[in-house]
Design goal:
The chain is α/β, with parallel strands linked by helices and about 280 residues long. Helices cover about 40% and strands about 15% of the residues. Strand 2 (about 35-40), helix 2 and strand 3 form a beta-alpha-beta unit. Helix 1 (about 10-25) packs across helix 2 and helix 9 packs antiparallel against helix 10.
């Protein structure tokens, strides 16, 4: 993201902008169910999937769909047109439009993403706010040669949608400083070396690789997957004196669930488990 976060984002304004765009052009965000995986596509290829109010509202709605539907286990987030996203829609920004949506923040995802696992599938490039959308996901698959970076400083803007907060926890500090101060992008292969990108894909196959990864996750117990994600996200804020109690509060319901018994029984009986999500 490139602009300072407004003191209070207006969901009504974002919803109105979303409706206005929906009335005159294709939906800015598409969703497609593939079994228990929800594919979410940023669908503004004419402006390189840049983020305006309508797209932010669309992403927020897709994440609500993912989390609210018990038949969905994992989300895959990608972009139309052969690229992920160029970040904030600068034209909309100049006109005063906000790319923030309620408590979810920039692009409807940066501050509060999904409760369930979310995989970014990057083709072409993920730059500025596009990079920050990817960083809000739990896993990243990127096509070889895809450009990734935070070029905001080149426009006298700041990567305020999460990159400056998340990247120092995921890759070497001095490399993050170089990315932020020069604004120069790096290829996906370099981010893979740092561990920011989980898997590299051949160009054009990022979604396929992400779906394969999603399938491996979706086979597991849904309660355990969500609890594991929650612990990994929240543990940075826990002191050493509280981390075990906090972890127990999250895991206790999982260990006493019907799914835990089903998992143990299936292992003993050498069969595939049938999860109930309870």
């Amino acid at each position: 993201m490139s602009a300072d976060q407004p003191a209070a984002a207006s969901e009504n304004g974002a919803a109105a902008a979303a409706q206005q765009e929906a009335d005159s052009s294709p939906p800015p965000v598409l969703t497609e169910r593939r079994g228990n995986v929800l594919v979410i596509t940023l669908n503004r290829p004419q402006v390189r999937n840049s983020v305006n109010a309508a797209l932010a509202a669309g992403v927020a709605g897709a994440l609500e769909e993912l989390d609210d539907d018990d038949g969905l286990s994992v989300g895959v987030l990608t972009g139309a047109g052969g690229y992920f996203s160029a970040g904030m829609d600068l034209g909309a920004f100049v006109k005063g439009e906000s790319p923030w949506f309620g408590d979810r923040g920039f692009a409807g995802i940066a501050q509060r993403a999904a409760r369930k696992p979310l995989i970014a599938a990057i083709e072409g490039f993920a730059l500025a706010g596009g990079m920050e959308i990817a960083l809000a996901c739990d896993l990243i698959v990127a096509a070889k040669g895809a450009k990734m970076g935070i070029p905001e400083a080149k426009r006298s803007l700041v990567a305020a949608g999460g990159a400056l907060l998340r990247l120092p926890r995921r890759m070497p500090y001095h490399m993050v400083m170089e990315l932020a101060l020069t604004g120069d992008p790096l290829p996906a292969e370099r981010f893979h070396e740092f561990g920011v990108v989980n898997h590299l894909a051949e160009p054009g196959s990022a979604v396929d690789v992400a779906l394969e990864l999603a399938g491996r996750i979706a086979k597991n117990g849904p309660l355990a997957v969500v609890a594991s994600k929650q612990i990994l996200e929240e543990q940075f804020d826990w002191s050493s004196s509280e981390m075990w109690d906090n972890q127990m509060a999250i895991t206790a319901p999982v260990f006493t669930s019907a799914d835990a018994k089903e998992g143990a029984s299936a292992f003993k009986e050498k069969r595939e488990p049938v999860w109930r999500g309870a």
